[in-house]
Amino acid sequence: MIKKSTLFLFWVLASAIITNPLFAEVMAKQLLPSPERKLGLPTVGVENVKYAKSNYKVQADSKFVVFDSLANVYSYGNMSTNKAIKYEPKTNKLVTIKRGFIDNDRYPSYSGNNTKNNLFIRVSGDWGKTWEPAKIAYDKNVSNFDEARYPSLHPFVFENELAIGFNASRVIEKQSVWSGHIVGFWNDSYGSIPIRHTKEVAGYSGLEWGIDSRVYANSTEDGEGFYHLIVSRISPTNDQDVANANHIGLRKVLELSETSIQHIIPPAWASSNFRTASPGYRTNEVVDFKEFGNGNLCLAVFGGFEAYSIQRNTFGISISTDKGETWSEFILLPWSVVNNFITSKGHPADSAVFIYDNKGFTTYELNNTTFMSFVAKLHAYGTGETISYVVEINYNYNTGEWKIYPIAQDIGGWILYQDITDANNQRTNWNDNELDVTRTVDGRYLLAKWVGLIDFDPENNTFKTTDIFVSIRNTSENSWSAPVNITNSDELDRMTLLPDFIPNDLKDVPIFKMATITTPDMTEQQKFNEQFYGGKDQYLLVGNFDIPLLSVEDEEPCNCEVKILNIKPNPINSNGTISVTFYMPKEDKANFTIFDATGRIVDDLKKYDNTYQFGPNTIEIDISGRNLQNGTYYLDVYSGDKRDTKVITIVK
Q1: Is this model's pTM higher than 0.85 or not?
Q2: How confident is the model at residue 16 (pLDDT cuts 50, 70, 90)?
């Protein structure tokens, strides 16, 4: 047992966080110092990804490997301020934007561009197993826009190429102030085009943009240009101006020049829509900024809404169906839904609270219906003890119905990581349980992630380590799987990040985490202790793990239909081979047929009639020799009384 009572905060302090709700905001406003430390020869910790149940079917253990190095981890993956890892489905590219590593004040002889003040793009075409060399997105020595921190990005396709819109805060580190933003565009053909943006909110006296950013970018409908939207919090320069403490704003970039950036505070996002904060604080936080449906946008926010009937913090969603021109009033989670959940668990009504910790948000489509999903922590009390639930808060956009699904019970402890400063200036980096949610590209599965303390003793304030836990839900079902510990090691897991999409088959799911660089002369205890500090040099590690579709032994196979997930390639040459991935609702026999547009069977594919396992299966079908002419055909799969059909296009 390792006593870390000064380094972590428990649920018993939840009431303090509720009355002083912007703990995360205070932390986010402060700049990160550059502690002096000699760089020793680092050792690389390699960790096997293991599973909690021995009967899980996995292809092989994955490993965390060093992906890159960072000057400071908290300006890369702080989920309360930025989103630095995303996936672009049209190009099948996983992309990230990151700071460099070298501090020129400590290493004045270094002459390269891999410095902590620059930004770099890295791209992977195989879900993070291999990466292209880093490409510079912002070079301070060239643009001289001050130092870059807290980058966010959004990938899209521009002129048939992967492109990235990005945003980062600007700081003048030696003066311990921040000076505005760096807004930019990157792709291979154009390179990187960064522009400087001030912190003042144009048209609004006494207000300035926050350092946080959630980014969305896309090509214009004519394909000739792109638009770039950036959501940030806005705060008054005078902390006593509580009436303007809660604005959320939108920066709209139409051309890459500072004067072209539009500054917008949508009426629904104005400070007056939220409860008044104490001086120096705010009563809302941006959870995420997402696309859904056919180019529609939604902003997910947590906080104290003025229109809410009771003094509780809740979740709200604001919608734009015109590419950010106008925004709806926030659609709020009714507190009656929360009460229904907690009373079903044996707690009195109104004896629960969502606290200001990290939260996840995603959207997905199911049967022509759009759903929006938060993952959060709910503290329920009133029964003699406080129980902390990890829950999914689900909103049906088509019907307006809200639901809460339990994911796991958690004791609620989390770790506060500390910067290395003197005793009179010690500051804490807040990173709690690192809740997150992502989805498969096809929207069939959600995956929730959190970090939990292992062997935690709240009475003695001791624990052994932290591990990463995940749970999955088939979006056609209402229940989440039993939690799976995907690291299960003595190493400390921290700053763990998932991309916004993951593979459809839930294999080789990428996950990032950070580790402070240690030196060979340290003891194992010293190496462990080093992980609690944020002001040292860090490795960025990437691992890939598999998660089984059936995750508890007594779970019944789902009652959903057999479904063809994808056919690749398609169109297909008449002499080629197609790879067909299909989903089985249970282990059973499946039959395949190819028929033409008239309904005539052209091949019964009896060779592939077989018994297939529950979950995704893949078969290779040789098209050559089947005398298929150019045109449209249909592949049919049926199992019992369930069937699915997909189009195949044959070209010579």
Answers
A1: no
A2: very low
